[in-house]
Amino acid sequence: GAVVSQHPSRVICKSGTSVKIECRSLDFQATTMFWYRQFPKKSLMLMATSNEGSKATYEQGVEKDKFLINHASLTLSTLTVTSAHPEDSSFYICSARASGGGTGELFFGEGSRLTVL
Amino acid sequence: DAKTTQPPSMDCAEGRAANLPCNHSTISGNEYVYWYRQIHSQGPQYIIHGLKNNETNEMASLIITEDRKSSTLILPHATLRDTAVYYCIVRVALSDYGQNFVFGPGTRLSVLP
After folding, report:
1. According to the model, what pLDDT value does residue A103 have?
2. I need a surface site. Which of A45, B10, B16, B63 has the fewest CB within 10 A?
3. Which of B30, B34, B46, B62 is the best substitution to test chain A (most A C-beta atoms within 10 A)?
4. A1, A31, A109 ranked by CB distance to B46: nearest
5. Rounded to whole angstroms, how far apart are CA atoms B46 and A40?
């Protein structure tokens, strides 16, 4: 199947700093990518939909100024957690589906575990 | 909210078939049933999907009832590596925008030696 890669897989940062997570579709182009967050023993919760060349669409309750999303190309979306705090510690997962066809399945990255001290 | 309901957990003996049920009684005519699984601390992995016909691939089989209100994912010979949380999701297949994949709590499958 198609490959979606995230980087970094793990990051530890100090409170107040910003962290950028990259999501790349390695062998296909993705008009749309999705960013999810997952807390321990919980299911994935959609944070935002990232659209290439336009602004991201955020889910209710997700602060767009805190979670900056940039989808500058058909193979790369980035999520920047600004001024991170301990409560932002979570497992962040991106996903993408191929543009212009396919049968609709989403392919997920390996996830990025953020720990804010 | 997720449009599916699944049992929270199941056990299966290694080497036996694992049958994971999913109820989706409000499924629309143009919505597919997708199955994903998530092994601990990894991103979800696509398994299989279908509309109304039964489907089979190298990983699993998907049996969808005639009224499409429920389905069963079958892992024919479960191994210890199949221990994971399994998610059943219904979604329109070919929409680029709008309806996304909504994850419910899933079924935690434990394959026992």
Report:
1. 62
2. B16
3. B46
4. A1
5. 21
| Average pLDDT of chain B to the nearest whole number | 91
Distance (Å) from the C-alpha of residue A111 to the closest C-alpha of chain B?
5
Task: Classify strands A112-116 and A10-13 as parallel, antiparallel or unpaired.
Answer: parallel
Closest CA to B112 of B86, B89, B82, B68: B82
pLDDT in tens, B8-29: 999 999 999 999 999 999 998 8
Residue A82 neighbours by CB under 8 Å, 6+ apart: A18, A65, A66, A67, A68
CA torsion A70-B103-A92-A57 (nearest 10°) is: 20
- Cα A5 to Cα A19, A43, A112, B46, B89: the distances in Å are 17, 20, 10, 15, 23
Token pair recorded at residue A117? 């001290």
Q: What is the dihedral of CA B48, B50, B55, B58, to 10 degrees?
A: -10
Residue B67 in this model has a pLDDT that exceeds 80: yes
Contact A75, A107 (CB under 8 A): no
Extract the runs of DSSP E, i.e. beta strands, from A67-116: 67-73, 76-81, 90-96, 107-108, 112-116
